[in-house]
Design a protein that fits this description.
- By secondary structure, this protein is α+β, with helices and mostly antiparallel strands.
- The chain contains nine helices and eight strands.
- It is 47% helix and 20% strand.
- A hairpin with a 2-residue loop joins β1 and β2.
- The longest helix is centred in the last third of the chain and has 23 residues.
- The C terminus is likely disordered.
Length: 261
C-alpha cells in the first residue's frame, strides 16, 4: 500500500452525479436523458432517483426531475451563513421599508453569486429577486462586488475559475470594473436582465473582505419614496451596518474541541 488508498462509494458517486447534473440544468430532465448524459443504465439511474426523491433532494413532475431547495436549506443552516442571515434580515427589512424598494443578499457559490435573502418592496407593486437565484459572478453587479472586495490572491484564484468556465470573459473591462468598485465602495449598474432597473450594490465586509453583497434593484417611478442617489446611500449604510454587526460573530475564534459538549 502506498498510503494513498482511495475508497470507492459507487452509489454515492452516482447520486452526486445526478445532483450536479440537475443543478446545472435550466429545466427539468427526464430519466432517459439523465441516463444518457451520465453514461449509466436506466436501471441504475432509476434506483438513485427513487432514493433522492424519497429524501427530498429532487422532485418529479411530468416534464422530468428537478432539484428541490433541500441542499440550499442545508447550506443555509451552516453557522457562518446562518449568523449572517439572521443579522442581515432586520436591517434589510428596514432598508426596504425606508427606500420603498426590494433588496437581496448574495454570497459566493463556486463561480456564481447565489441569493440567500430577498426582501420584497413594500406596497402593492415592485420587483424582487427570488431566494436561490444564481448568476455568474462576473455577469452581475452583486457578483462583481463579491469579486472586487477580496485579497489579491483570492481575487485572482476566483478569476482563474471564471476564465475556465467562460472563455468569452472580457478580461480588461472586468478588472477595471472591479477596481472601480473598490475605489468607490460599491457599484451602480443597469440590470443585465431587465430594462428600467438599476442595481445598487455594496459589500458586506468582514476583516476587509466581502463575505456577501447587498443589492437593491432600483425601479424608478413617480411614486418613489427616495431618489436613486438616496437609495444608493441607504444601501451602503445598511451594508456597513450588517458588516459591523456580523464581524464579531464571524471572526470569533472557535473553542477548542475539548471544551465543546
Amino acid at each position: 500500500m502506498n498510503g494513498k488508498t482511495r475508497y470507492q462509494a459507487p452509489a454515492l458517486k452516482k447520486g452526486l452525479e445526478i445532483l450536479e447534473l440537475l443543478a446545472g440544468a435550466s429545466e427539468p430532465i427526464i430519466m432517459s436523458d439523465i441516463s444518457t448524459a451520465l453514461g449509466r443504465s436506466v436501471s441504475e439511474i432509476f434506483r438513485m432517483l427513487q432514493v433522492l426523491e424519497e429524501h427530498g433532494y429532487i422532485a418529479r413532475a411530468e416534464d422530468g426531475y428537478r432539484l428541490t431547495n433541500r441542499l440550499f436549506t442545508l447550506g443555509m443552516s451552516q453557522p457562518p451563513i446562518r449568523d449572517l442571515a439572521s443579522t442581515a434580515l432586520p436591517i434589510m427589512q428596514d432598508l426596504a421599508r425606508n427606500a420603498g424598494q426590494s433588496c437581496h443578499l448574495g454570497v459566493v457559490s463556486g463561480v456564481e453569486m447565489v441569493v440567500i435573502i430577498a426582501i420584497e418592496a413594500p406596497g402593492l407593486s415592485g420587483f424582487a429577486v427570488r431566494v436561490g437565484y444564481r448568476r455568474p459572478l462576473h455577469r452581475s453587479n452583486s457578483g462583481r462586488i463579491l469579486l472586487a472586495f477580496q485579497s489579491p490572491e483570492n481575487r485572482e484564484a476566483m478569476l482563474r475559475e471564471i476564465r475556465a468556465s467562460d472563455h468569452m470573459i472580457e478580461e480588461l473591462d472586468l478588472v477595471a470594473r472591479l477596481d472601480a468598485a473598490v475605489a468607490t465602495g460599491g457599484a451602480v449598474s443597469p440590470s443585465p436582465m431587465l430594462t428600467g432597473i438599476t442595481d445598487l450594490s455594496a459589500p458586506i465586509l468582514v476583516g476587509g473582505v466581502a463575505r456577501a453583497s447587498l443589492t437593491m434593484p432600483f425601479v424608478d417611478g413617480a411614486a418613489n419614496r427616495a431618489s436613486i442617489d438616496q437609495c444608493n446611500d441607504l444601501v451602503r449604510a445598511a451594508a456597513q451596518a450588517i458588516g459591523t454587526a456580523v464581524s464579531p460573530i464571524m471572526t470569533a475564534p472557535s473553542r477548542p474541541l475539548e471544551e465543546e459538549e
